[in-house]
């Protein structure tokens, strides 16, 4: 019975998704064409099976077609205390659509958030590579709100741009943040279609006081090509994506940085969050981690 229900929901979900793609011009906002949708569904069937694919079909149909028209609830989904989206009144009534995305995540990116809160000063210019859901950008923006600092974000995935914008807007920090659509150095694991993203080298990045990067394996290339020397570099290593912790540490040391904190992300995949401080700023950073 459950499987039959899920199957029916899947058919509805896919129909809604494809209708959204062709009739509502969703191909433009998602940068997907029918061929990519069919390939995506085939991939999904292989990886998630029929039930998993059915759930994703329903999620897609609800999220893309219906949800924008469902009334807001006045309550917010929060990632690590940062508002990321306003709940819609039907979210919790659409079983397969109660997806992770709309659950609170109190520990979301905690090591990066903690490092930013410890090191960003009100007058700092902060550079964020890998904007994601916009949480670290919001935390950085809140830290510069009382000064002359500014936050500049680079994000490669087209869809993440609207997530970032929404997060900045609901937290009232959009004026302190500039968001750029670009693939920095290389695409090893961008979270979605890149669309019109510009491909740039770290050589062209603006100078900053604090650099935070969680860009899915591009970190080592950034450290090799970065032209400036920020006071603080917060970096998530990705041993699973060919940016291993020991190589990141070596590159930081070569640039004259001391690692003042090493927080575990997913140690089993060699993912750590390192906070590194430029040699001349190390005495000041001693009390912060
Ligand atoms: C884990 S998320 C970052 C989360 C973010 N710190 C937050 O607070 O939500 C990583 C992001 O990096 C983006 N990304 C991956 N590779 C990239 C690259 N080479 N250039 C720019 N963005 C990249 C992904 O698309 C994804 O949105």
Strand and helix layout:
Elements: H1 2-23, H2 26-30, H3 34-66, E1 72-79, E2 82-88, H4 110-119, E3 125-129, H5 135-144, E4 150-155, H6 158-170, E5 177-184, E6 198-200, E7 210-213, H7 219-225, E8 232-236, H8 245-254, E9 257-266, E10 271-278, H9 282-285
Helix pairs in contact: 1-3, 4-5, 7-8
The structure holds S-adenosylmethionine.
Question: How does this model look, in words?
Answer:
The chain has 289 residues and is of the alpha/beta class. It has 3 domains: 2-69, no CATH class; 72-101, no CATH class; 110-285, Vaccinia Virus protein VP39 (Rossmann fold). 39% of the residues lie in helices and 22% in strands. The protein is built from 9 helices and 10 strands. The chain has helices at 2-23, 26-30, 34-66, 110-119, 135-144, 158-170, 219-225, 245-254, 282-285, and strands at 72-79, 82-88, 125-129, 150-155, 177-184, 198-200, 210-213, 232-236, 257-266, 271-278. The strands form 2 sheets. The protein has an 8-stranded mixed sheet, sandwiched between helices. Strands 1-2 form a two-stranded antiparallel ribbon. The longest helix has 33 residues, at 34-66. It is globular, with a radius of gyration of 20 Å. It starts with a helix and ends with a helix. The model is unreliable at 18-29 (pLDDT under 50). The structure holds S-adenosylmethionine (SAM).
